């Protein structure tokens, strides 16, 4: 019974990730990019990371990776299934908040404005936080060190290479507005504003993305 629940969590992970992202991915193709910063190594890394999104399906529905299993206590696996679902939720909320300003790489679109509401009023990179939560939790839920090694290596490297460049580009485009925003927010996680942060995730405060920055 518990094993079935964990298998379902593993199987829905890539499906939720793909389905949530799909409309934004399509929308992104229509938008005019005015500035970008993505070196070739990031394109390679991103494509490799994208392939690993499918690994949970391989782990769940085939025997290819079965021999790389550890034995992790059920209580730990159950707890991590909760953090994995939280990760999927934060991933969805950050997409819903960023809307058509989402892009797969570090780039600025025509009429880009700074989002500072909802979950973005507490942390600057909720989508990357979600990625970390999902990848780490997946290791414990699946117990599969082979898939988890590739998932974690590619996603962690991608995010760590990207965050600084993304913030640099945002400072270049939004100037003092982004510097002020940085002062008020944490990069990936907030202990100081943990409760309001949780509230913003729980109640999806998607209320009116300001068209112009405040
Ligand atoms: C994959 S999204 C990730 C957004 C953010 N780093 C996160 O983790 O939630 C990357 C794009 O989002 C855009 N972006 C990031 N933060 C933003 C903000 N606060 N307001 C508007 N656009 C933002 C940037 O143009 C960047 O190219």
UniProtKB/TrEMBL annotation:
It comes from the Eukaryota. Its EC number is 2.1.1.100. The chain crosses the membrane at residues 6-24, 44-62, 74-98. Its main location: endoplasmic reticulum. It is found in: Endoplasmic reticulum membrane; Membrane. It is a multi-pass membrane protein. It catalyses: [protein]-C-terminal S-[(2E,6E)-farnesyl]-L-cysteine + S-adenosyl-L-methionine = [protein]-C-terminal S-[(2E,6E)-farnesyl]-L-cysteine methyl ester + S-adenosyl-L-homocysteine. The keyword Zinc does not apply. Pfam families: ICMT. PANTHER family: PROTEIN-S ISOPRENYLCYSTEINE O-METHYLTRANSFERASE (PTHR12714), PROTEIN-S-ISOPRENYLCYSTEINE O-METHYLTRANSFERASE (PTHR12714:SF9). This is Protein-S-isoprenylcysteine O-methyltransferase. The lineage of its organism: Eukaryota, Metamonada, Anaeramoebidae, Anaeramoeba.
């Amino acid at each position: 019974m518990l094993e079935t629940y964990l298998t379902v969590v593993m199987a829905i992970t890539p499906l939720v990730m793909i389905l949530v992202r799909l409309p934004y991915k399509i929308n992104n193709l229509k938008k005019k990019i005015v500035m970008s910063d993505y070196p070739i190594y990031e394109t390679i890394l991103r494509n490799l990371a994208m392939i690993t999104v499918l690994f949970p399906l391989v782990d769940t529905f085939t025997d290819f990776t079965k021999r790389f299993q550890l034995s992790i206590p059920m209580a730990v696996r159950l707890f991590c299934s909760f953090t994995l679902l939280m990760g999927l939720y934060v991933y969805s909320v950050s997409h819903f908040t960023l809307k058509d300003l989402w892009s797969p790489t570090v780039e600025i679109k025509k009429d880009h404005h700074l989002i500072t509401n909802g979950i973005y009023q507490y942390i600057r990179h909720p989508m990357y936080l979600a990625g970390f939560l999902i990848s780490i939790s997946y290791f414990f839920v699946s117990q599969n060190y082979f898939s988890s090694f590739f998932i974690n290596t590619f996603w962690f490297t991608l995010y760590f290479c990207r965050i600084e460049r993304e913030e640099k580009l945002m400072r270049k485009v939004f100037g003092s507005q982004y510097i002020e925003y940085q002062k008020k927010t944490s990069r990936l996680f907030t202990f100081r504003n943990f409760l309001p942060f949780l509230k913003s995730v729980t109640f999806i405060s998607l209320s009116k993305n300001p068209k112009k920055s405040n």
